[in-house]
Amino acid sequence: MDKSFVYGVAVTDYNFTGRKEETRRLSTNFLGGINSILISPRRYGKTSLVDHVCRNLADKDIIIVRLDIFGCKTEYDFYNALAVAVLKQTASKVQLWMEEARDFLVRLTPKIGIPIDPVSEISVSLGITPETHSPEEVLNMVEVIAKRKNSRIVVCIDEFQQVGEFENTRQVQARLRSVWQHHHNTSYCLYGSKRHMMSGIFLNRSMPFYQFGDLLWLQKIPTTDWMDYVISHFEAAGKHVSPQMVEHICEAVDNYPSYVQHLSSILLSHLPQGGSVTDETMAIALSELMSTNEALYMQQVEPLSAYQMNLLKAIVSGIHSGFNEKRVRSMFNLGSPSNIVRLRDALIERDIIYSEMRQLYLTDPVFGLWFKKRFL
Question: In angstroms, rounded to a whole number, what is the distance separating the alpha carbons of residues 218 and 332?
Fold first, then answer.
């Protein structure tokens, strides 16, 4: 049975709403062999969007390779993850030992577990090292397979900002770009949730991945796209929410996709059969939403200095620019202008705030509600 509202994980078709233009654009890129870069904060639905596009294209003549590199700490961690994902998603259980992987596996003793249950996944461990394969060999493998199959392959790499953490990252990025830009049967969808790191990789003119592909900067889902979705899901559960209350839900969490789903789920759980959302249940649900995430929020603020906390207080109070003004520095005890720059950079690095048009904003709107209630 489909759940009424889903948050914290990628959502399926029943729980997917909006993103029509993004779906169209990404689908066009996948079919046309155009590289795509997708940037947004965490829990904005990047993975759900990519999954949605992949499901829509399931009957098309393309092969989708997907991997998450959040756990990759080194360049060769990445190469191993990439090679395993390519082999698992382009070769059948029999082909894995035959032509698709033959040339690549010749210098390895791979550990491949083929389960008896046909539904279970193949377990693959390769152990690629600089002694067995050069970066170019690994990176070109998918293009070689695509040509052998006479197919188009799209490689979707989640949490791509991890590449920016690798040792000698500029050289690593240059290697990736120098190989991938010559692929004709393979295109890439690179997406990540640390916007300052993704911006540094793709928007910096001096970096190798500058203008690598079509850049999609994922925005919040507007209230109009949530309206029918939220109302119909309440009705399907035998409960009710008015259009005005849907607007209130979206406004309360600043249209943050995961939080719209989460707050709606809490509201639904508090209503009796046939019940309707009221201002009272809304207040209770918002309080529960903040309480549910309090441990995470405390973990975010505990390492912060007093000055960093003061800058957050200024932003939560509604000040987004003009921090160098004497009045603002004095009011919130921010220190010198040079100190403010250090505070800003530190909080951006922690992904607690972001800068847009020279103004500072909180990354997480519910964190802002909790912070205001707890510290102001």
Answer: 33
8 Å CB contact between 52 and 16: yes
Phi, psi torsion values for 188, nearest 5 degrees:
-130, 140
Q: Tell me: the pLDDT tens digits for 102-144?
A: 666 666 666 666 666 655 565 666 788 888 889 999 999 999 9
d(C-alpha 231, C-alpha 47), whole Å: 24
Segments in the chain below pLDDT 70: 1-2, 92-125
113: which strand partners? 123
Residue 59, SS3 per DSSP: coil
**E strands of 91-151, at which residues?**
111-113, 123-125
Residue 122, judged by CB atoms within 10 A of its CB (0-12, 13-18, 19+), counts as middle
Q: Which two tokens stand for residue 204?
A: 């910096």
The answer to whether 261 and 7 are in contact (CB under 8 A) is: yes
Predicted local confidence at residue 201, as pLDDT: 96
Residue type, 195: R
Q: What is the rounded CA–CA span in Å between residue 58 and residue 259? A: 29
Tokens of 344: 């800003």
The type of residue at 34 is: I
In angstroms, the CA 106 to CA 117 distance is: 28
